[in-house]
Amino acid sequence: MSQTNHRTVPRKPGRPKEGEDLRYVILDEAELAFAEHGFAGTRVRDIAMLAGVNQALIRYYFGSKQELFDEVLRRRGSDISGARHVQLDRLLALPDPPSVSQIIRAYLQPQWDMKQSGPNGAAFVRLQARLHAEPEAHALRLRSEVYDASVKRYIQVLSDALPEIPRETISMRMAFLVGTYLFMLNDLGRLNDLTDGQIGDIAQDEMLGQLVRFLAAGLAAPVS
Amino acid sequence: MSQTNHRTVPRKPGRPKEGEDLRYVILDEAELAFAEHGFAGTRVRDIAMLAGVNQALIRYYFGSKQELFDEVLRRRGSDISGARHVQLDRLLALPDPPSVSQIIRAYLQPQWDMKQSGPNGAAFVRLQARLHAEPEAHALRLRSEVYDASVKRYIQVLSDALPEIPRETISMRMAFLVGTYLFMLNDLGRLNDLTDGQIGDIAQDEMLGQLVRFLAAGLAAPVS
DNA sequence: GTTGTAATTATACAAAATTATAATTTATTC
DNA sequence: GAATAAATTATAATTTTGTATAATTACAAC
């Protein structure tokens, strides 16, 4: 019931028809599956079935389940990281120094856009939240590899915008921020259940604004 | 290397020696294992081995892996929920109406205490973070079952303390709050890596204060 | 057109893991 | 002290699952 069989008629072996990129079909389906069931909870078999592809093809392209997972993460992770840098560059190019809200929004916008971009983008966001809950060494390495650089740059810029707040405090609050938005992006659809349907009518776009306001206030809060 | 064999000499069958509560030993080890590897990533075998117990005994006590998992969650979940109610009652019994910071602290304190209480408490906190990242229907139900009631009560009290902020906004911000603290409690140990070791010297206790300040500012932020 | 190579499937293997059953020991009760 | 029931182990059966190999097809190049 859960797994939709996307392709019933089997493909014939041989050279692929121009444009049919099975490698990407696999990555897309893996993204959806990993987001829903996690790494250990996802079966390579299922990904293959969803992609309408033989199991062995996954091995052919990616080597192992773990490598497939890593590839799923890297593919979009580097996009996000890049977009964050671009957003920050754009902000710093303006004549006035950026406000805290602007910096935060610059950081969140890429994730937000990805989430809005369709089912796969949304799945990837959920996958990140999962990854952040995994204490395994491998997950940690992967997270660092993909995200650390941009976080550090944002901490620097925030420090400049909030000179009265010690840098360690900013670092910590930045960590809080990451937790908040990841959770929020992940849980947004289910937020209604948690709160008795009280926020069902708030538009998606307004929600980002609300989040930014919340985080900006927290980040700029006076120290003791 | 990862799995420590807690008991090498096998137990003999029969009635247990007074005081040796294998049921709890199993729950404790399951808690640690699930927190580290997640539900799907944990093998019943390993739990049995860590608890120094035969696999079949787990089945005997809990029926299935899933039921064991649920039991691990319920055991402490109800403690947390209860403690939150107690904290709130205590606060409301004071002559003055509670401040936002006080309310937040009341909400966080039980989790914080649990985390400090030892390896198993800390593991449980991590486990909750994991659960919040799982979109599966079963995980959702479990979360609702264990936590929803207390959250709703806190939303009410916060609404009273912040009459100028609409209730839907409070609800949403409460959801942000949950995300922030879960992530923080989960990631605290690794926070240093993320921020280049800049917050290594902050005492654990001070960290809770910092978190409360951050969240209180966010919750009380003026609306648009 | 034959040959070679890349992409894909069909099928098989082997390890791992959950579930199941039967046997064994100990305490308790009458 | 015999009987009964509970707790525990040993062992087995079955299902799942990741991995591996061999066979097949199609395209391209010479």
UniProtKB/TrEMBL annotation, chains A, B:
At the top level, the lineage of the source is Bacteria
Give the DNA-binding residue ranges.
43-62
Q: What is this protein called?
A: TetR/AcrR family transcriptional regulator
Q: Which UniProt keywords apply?
A: DNA-binding
SUPFAM superfamilies annotated for this entry?
Answer: Homeodomain-like, Tetracyclin repressor-like, C-terminal domain
Q: Which Pfam families match?
A: TetR_C_30 (PF17939), TetR_N (PF00440)
Organism equals Salinicola corii
Question: Locate the HTH tetR-type domain: which residues?
Answer: 20-80
Q: Name one GO molecular function term.
A: DNA-binding transcription factor activity
